[in-house]
Design goal:
By secondary structure, this protein is mainly alpha-helical. It has 9 helices and 3 strands; from the N terminus they run αααααααβααββ. It folds into 2 domains: about 90 residues, Orthogonal Bundle (434 Repressor (Amino-terminal Domain)), CATH 1.10.260.40; about 70 residues, Orthogonal Bundle (Arc Repressor Mutant, subunit A). The chain is about 55% helix and about 5% strand. This is Helix-turn-helix protein. InterPro entries: Cro/C1-type_HTH, Lambda_DNA-bd_dom_sf. It holds the Pfam family HTH_3.
Length: about 180
C-alpha cells in the first residue's frame, strides 16, 4: 500500500519545527515574538493548524528568512548561529530584550547533530557512539542517555538498529542518504 502523502499543514509544521529546533528557541519565545498563542504555535508545528499567510510571514520574520524560504519544505535550514543572530535582531527591532535566552542544548540535540555530521558508520554499539560523540563534542554523556537517543533516531529512520546477539547491546549504523 503506498504511503499517504503528508498534508501541507503537516509539511509546514515539520519545516517550522526544524527551524525551531535548529535555532534552539522555545515555543513560548516564538509565541512572544510573533504574538501568536503558544497553543496555536504548538498545533502548527504538530500539523494540526492551517497557518494564515500573516502567520507564515511572522514566523519568517522571526527567523530572518523570506516566507518563500520557510515554505520550501525540502530546503535546507540556516545554521543555528545565523538563526539565533536573526532572532536577536528581530527582538531588537521589536524593542524587546535582544538576548532572548536560547535553551541549553540537551543530549538529544547534541547526539542527533553528531550523527548528522558523521560519515556513514557502523555497526557500532551505543557505548562506542557515546565515546565518539563525547570526544567530538566535548560532552560527558552516559551510555544509557545515548542509547535512548539512538533508539529514538532508529524509530525515526535516521539510523539503523541491528541485533548483536545480546539484546541489551544492539548496534547502530548510519548509511548514505
Amino acid at each position: 500500500m503506498p504511503e499517504a502523502k503528508k498534508s501541507i499543514n503537516a509539511l509546514f509544521g515539520e519545516r517550522l519545527g526544524k527551524f525551531k529546533k535548529k535555532a534552539n528557541i522555545s515555543i513560548a519565545k516564538i509565541s512572544y515574538a510573533t504574538s501568536i498563542s503558544v497553543n496555536y504555535v504548538t498545533d502548527t508545528i504538530n500539523g494540526k493548524r492551517n497557518p494564515t499567510l500573516l502567520h507564515v510571514e511572522s514566523y519568517a520574520n522571526l527567523f530572518g528568512v523570506s516566507a518563500s524560504e520557510l515554505l520550501r519544505f525540502d530546503g535546507s535550514v540556516p545554521s543555528r548561529e545565523d538563526l539565533q543572530q536573526n532572532i536577536r535582531k528581530y527582538f531588537k527591532v521589536l524593542g524587546y530584550n535582544p538576548t532572548p535566552g536560547f535553551k541549553k542544548l540537551g543530549p538529544a540535540y547534541i547526539v542527533e547533530e553528531f550523527i548528522a555530521e558523521s560519515e556513514p558508520f557502523g555497526p557500532l554499539e551505543a557505548a562506542e557512539i557515546k565515546n565518539l560523540c563525547n570526544q567530538a563534542k566535548g560532552t560527558s554523556y552516559k551510555t544509557n542517555d545515548v542509547s535512548r537517543i539512538l533508539n529514538n533516531l532508529a524509530e525515526e529512520g535516521i539510523i539503523y538498529k541491528t541485533q548483536t546477539g545480546n539484546a541489551k547491546k544492539p548496534a547502530y549504523k548510519k548509511v548514505e542518504e
